[in-house]
Protein: Short-chain dehydrogenase/reductase 3
Organism: Anabas testudineus
Amino acid sequence: MELKSACRMLLFPVQMFYYIVRASLFSLLPSRRKDLSKEVVLITGGGRGIGRHLAKEFAKQGARKVILWGRTEKCLKETAEEISLSGTECHYFICDVANREEVYKQAKVVREKVGDVTILVNNAAVVHGKSLMDSDDDSLLKSQHINTMGQFWTTKAFLPRMLELQHGHVVCINSILSQSPIPGAIDYCTSKASSLAFMESLTLGLLDCPGVGCTTVLPFHTNTEMFQGMRLFVYNCCHLGISTYNMFPHLFPPLKPEVVAQRTVDAVRADKAFLYLPWTMHALVILKSFMPQVALEEIHKFSGTYTCMNTFKGRT
Ligand SMILES: NC(=O)c1ccc[n+]([C@@H]2O[C@H](COP(=O)([O-])OP(=O)(O)OC[C@H]3O[C@@H](n4cnc5c(N)ncnc54)[C@H](OP(=O)(O)O)[C@@H]3O)[C@@H](O)[C@H]2O)c1
C-alpha cells in the first residue's frame, strides 16, 4: 500500500506535465465539438447585449430550442422574433433573476411549456459604476442579488433535472474584473468575484456527475451598453505631455459581443471549464500573483484602469 502511494506521488508531476502538454496540443488542433441539436438553452438577460448574441449564436450552431429571460419585454420579444425567423424555436419569459420566488415559478412554467432546460447560461448582470461611498445601500444590494444570488436560484431551479438526466451544462458569463477589480465599480467586482467562486466550487462539485459540466467565461471590456463611457489607456503624464491613450489607442480595444458569444458557444461545445477573453488576460492573473503592489499600481495607472470609471455613463 505504501509503495503504491509512493509511486503515485512520484508519478504526480509527470501526470501534471502530461495534462498541460495534452491541453496545449488540443487547443491547437480542431477538437470534437458537442452536438447541440437536442439542447434546450436558457439565457438570462437574453434580450440584449452579450445575451442577445449568445441566443443567436446558440441558434446558429444548431440548438433545438432557445429560451430568453429578462425584465424588458421589448428586447426579449425582438430577439425571440429574430431567432424564430431564422428557424429555431424561441420563447421568452419575463423573469427578474434577483427574485427567488419568481425564478422558481418561471422555471416551472418553462418546464411545463417548453421542456427540460439542458444548457443554462447565467448572463444577466448590472453595474452601477460608483464608489462605495457614492453608492446607496439599495444599489449595492441589488447588484449582489442580480449578479451573484441570481445564479444560485437559477442553478438550483435547473441543475437537479440535469443531474437526473445525466445531461446538462451550466455556463456563467463572468468578467476579468472578478480577478482584477477596478475602483468605481466596487459592487460589480465583488459580485463577479463571488460568482467566480460559485462557479469554481460548482465545477469541482460536479466532477463526479457524468454528463453535466460547467463553463465560466471571463471576458475583458466588451462593446455593449453596460460599461458605456468607460475609457481605458488614458494615463496622462502631464509633465511630459504624454497620453497612453494617444500612444496606444488600439492596444486593447473592447471585444465585440458577437465574438464573446461565438467563443462561449465553442467553449461549451468543447466542454472547456474556463475561458479567458482574450487569452492574454491569463498574463494579468499571473502577474498579479507575484508582482509587488507598487508595480501593480503602476500597471493600473498606465493602463488607465485606475481612472477608467471616471467617464462611465453605463446603460442610460
Ligand atoms: N460589457 C462588458 O464590458 C462586459 C465585460 C465582461 C463581462 N460582462 C458580463 O457579460 C454579461 C452581459 O453583459 P452585457 O455587456 O451584455 O450587459 P447589458 O447589455 O447591460 O445586458 C445585461 C442583461 O442582463 C439583463 N438583466 C439585468 N438585470 C436583470 C435581472 N434582474 N433579471 C433578469 N435579467 C436581467 C438585462 O435585461 P433587462 O434589463 O431587460 O432585464 C440585459 O439583457 C454580464 O454578466 C456582464 O457582467 C460584460
Notes: The two ends are 65 Å apart (CA to CA).
